Amino acid sequence: GASLQVGAMFRCSARCCEDSAASMQQVQRCIERCHAPLAQAQAIVTAELEQFQDRLSRCTLHCNDKAKDALEAGGTEARVRGQLDACLATCGDDHLRLVPAMAKKMKDSLAALQQ
């Protein structure tokens, strides 16, 4: 898991510092190599979550547009609010269903990093 990766990163970084013959620059480069897998892992997770958030955001904007159109077409506020609530609830439900697939995708991508 993630804690395993963090531990490996610290052990790797510590080994970089043990080489007394290495220059500061070599030690620095060695440490950067140790941090790379964790940085990649964070980038994978961040990208997936941002994509998920964007999709949810687009869905809620779509609901807001529909509500605005319905109000402009003469719908009563109570009725439009009910439709908006239902639309937003659907967005939530649809996106909750995407979570397991998103989690699997992240897990697979992270596993591929450790190969």
TrEMBL record:
Q: Report the source organism.
A: Strix occidentalis caurina (northern spotted owl)
User: Which named protein is this?
Assistant: Protein FAM136A
Recorded hits in PANTHER family, A to Z, give: PROTEIN FAM136A
Source organism, top-level taxon: Eukaryota
Q: Which GO terms describe its cellular component?
A: cytoplasm
Under InterPro entries, the record lists: DUF842_euk
Q: Which family does it belong to?
A: Belongs to the FAM136 family.
Q: Which Pfam families match?
A: DUF842
